[in-house]
């Protein structure tokens, strides 16, 4: 099997974005605070990767309030779920063919 880099999604080249997507794939949604704690990231670092995923339309953002505090939650879009599953499937296929 030839390795075709074009079949890997560039958005998921970064381990942080893979971590974000992994967390969101198994949860209906996660708050900014939850993702920050889950991935042990700074606000700015997490925000830039979330923006990249949002711009790619792989995640949706919901802003609201809990009491007087703002609460931003993120969820995977159908397009994001499909793209991430395809990315993982190609990686799994590569691993299976190396063995």
UniProtKB/TrEMBL annotation:
Residues annotated as domain Winged helix DNA-binding: 16-95
SUPFAM superfamilies xref list: Winged helix' DNA-binding domain
Superkingdom of the source species: Bacteria
This protein's name: Helix-turn-helix domain-containing protein
PANTHER family hit by this protein: BSL7504 PROTEIN
Lineage: Bacteria, Pseudomonadati, Bacteroidota, Flavobacteriia, Flavobacteriales
CDD domains membership: HTH_ARSR
InterPro entries: ArsR-like_HTH (IPR011991), WH-like_DNA-bd_sf (IPR036388), WH_DNA-bd_dom (IPR027395), WH_DNA-bd_sf (IPR036390)
A biological process term (GO) from this entry: regulation of DNA-templated transcription
Organism: Myroides pelagicus
Pfam families in the cross-refs: HTH_34
